[in-house]
Amino acid sequence: MNISPITLTSEPKVIFDTEAIKKILPHRYPFLFLDGILEYVPYQYAIGIKNVSVNEYFFVGHFPDKPLFPAVLLLEAVGQVGVFLVLKSFEDKRLAVFTGSDKTKFRKPIIPGDQIVMRAELLDLRGNRFGKVAGRAEVNGELVGEAILNFALVEPSSL
Fold this sequence. Notes:
Elements: H1 18-22, E1 36-41, E2 45-51, H2 71-89, E3 95-106, E4 115-126, E5 130-139, E6 142-154
Antiparallel strand pairs: 1-2, 2-4, 3-6, 4-5, 5-6
């Protein structure tokens, strides 16, 4: 995949906190997986973070004696960075729904105490309705997951 390792252009600082993110994304607890946006360049990329806490609901069953952050939730978290990028850039009020993923790879386990740093880059937006973002997730500078995420922008009333 052609998404570069994550390099911040300045000292890490949250520029959009969860309250600001909730003004862009429709996600809410327990399905909002972004704790902040560190960088945002309209129409190009966004970098977000997820702080993994042992108190999260899914660790009760995934797995009680060896808690691992579910890979599918990593895909969702990276997707939320991509959705933030698209909806904020285009000032769009529609919903972004996943339509597929390509080149998805999970490289290393994520455990409580980790901070996931995720980058999403806009690859394509066709007909103001369908698009693709490339996503990458790292913990302590090491690649933990990556994917190309496909989405459709839809009116909430059409669901």
